[in-house]
Each structure stands twice: as C-alpha cells, then as structure tokens.
Amino acid sequence: MRIATTIFDNFEKKTVPATLIIGIDVGIIQEVGNQWKRERMLKVLQGIKCEHFHWDWGRKASFVNDLLAYEFFAVECQGIIEGLMLTESVSHRAELPPDEGKPLVYVEFVETAPSSTTFLCDAPHYRDIGSRLIEGAINYSIGQGFEGRVGLLALPQAERFYLKMGFEKVRIVAEAGLFYYEWAAKAFQNTLDIRKQ
C-alpha cells in the first residue's frame, strides 16, 4: 500500500511530497539496510555516537519475512527510501490505564536515513520522516482495531522525540536497559495530528 504524505526538505526549505509505503519488498530493505549500515559505521569511525550502529535491516527482513504478525513500513521521497520501520501486532499488550492488557502495535525498529539523522550529520537533508513512520504505526493500529495504541523501547538518543510525539514513559526494561514508551490515542488525542489514510 502506498499513501501520499509530505516531509520537509531542509535544503530547499519547503515541504515536499513523499510516500508512506506499507509492505515493502525484502530485497529493497536489504539493499537500503546495507547502505545505511555502511554509512553508520563510517560515522562511528569518525567518533560520532550512534546507539544503533549495529542494526542490520537485511537480517531483520530475512528473519520475519512472510510472518503475518510483522509489517514493514518505509518513507520514500524522490524514489529514495528515507526511513524504515518494523512493527509486530500480536504478542504485545498495552500497559497504560485504562487499556492494560489490550492489544497494540509494537514498533520493533524505526530508523531515519543517516543523511537525515540529526546526531549523525551537521546538515540533515529531510525532517519529519520519523514522525510520518510513527503516524503510520498509529493509523495501522487504528486499522487493526487497536484504537491507536502503540508501544516501543526507545534508544536514549530518541527519547526526546517520542515524548514530543505524545508517548508516555512507562517503565525501564531491565534486560534491555531501555525505557518502554506507549502511545494511547484516548490519552493523547490532542497531541498529534494523525493523518487520515
């Protein structure tokens, strides 16, 4: 599925057309993931902190390919993939009241292209890519009948972004050393302009 959206081009200083893709070919994910992995490693070698430098999108795609619980999302602009996200919608349950125990869409991984990641480059090309992906997860949750509930573990470098998006910090997950965040549409319906799909 392809859905028209927009992101902001920092070079052109204007909003530009983009596409949110739900369900993306594994070969494309592997190609993009390998390119991003090389770019991240170069940044690490330059002394730039990158908490997800080891991520391997190709391996993730191969592992969950054809499993119905998982869905890949991408943001594409001018024919280039600028963001990727992997969600799972079966095994996780909400923790925020009053929805404890209800199903949600769990964001396993989400990443903006290194060329548009603020802590990896001095002049990011685009912004709003992560927002469009998270909006996609929220709308996907609504489509699944989960009322917009979304959960995820946040890397420290991304926590501020999730709080800005209206997520609530729920608890520390000791085994991961990361905080679990949750977005509940009933609690935060005024904090995010969810684009109708």
Fill in the keyword field for this structure.
197 residues, alpha+beta, Aminopeptidase, 5 helices, 27% helix, globular
Low-confidence runs: 190-197
Helix content: 25-40%
How many independent structural domains?
A: 1
The count of β-strands is 9
> What Rg do the Cα atoms give?
16 Å
User: What is the overall silhouette?
Assistant: globular
User: Total number of helical segments?
Assistant: 5
Enumerate the strands of the largest sheet in spatial order, edge to edge or round the barrel: 6-1-2-3-4-5-7-9-8
The largest β sheet comes out as: 9 strands, mixed
CATH class division: Alpha Beta
Strand and helix order:
EEHHEEEEHEHEEH
Give me the CATH superfamily. Gcn5-related N-acetyltransferase (GNAT)
Q: What is the SS-derived class?
A: alpha+beta
Share of residues in strands: 25-35%
| CATH-defined fold name | Aminopeptidase
State the end-to-end CA separation: 10 Å
Mean pLDDT: 90
CATH architecture: 3-Layer(aba) Sandwich
The gist of it:
This protein is α+β, with helices and mostly antiparallel strands and 197 residues long. It has a single domain, classed as Gcn5-related N-acetyltransferase (GNAT) (Aminopeptidase), CATH 3.40.630.30.
What does this structure look like?
This protein is of the alpha+beta class and 197 residues long. It has a single domain (2-188), classed as 3-Layer(aba) Sandwich (Aminopeptidase). Helix content is 27%, strand content 31%. It is built from 5 helices and 9 strands; from the N terminus they run E-E-H-H-E-E-E-E-H-E-H-E-E-H. The chain is globular, with a radius of gyration of 16 Å.
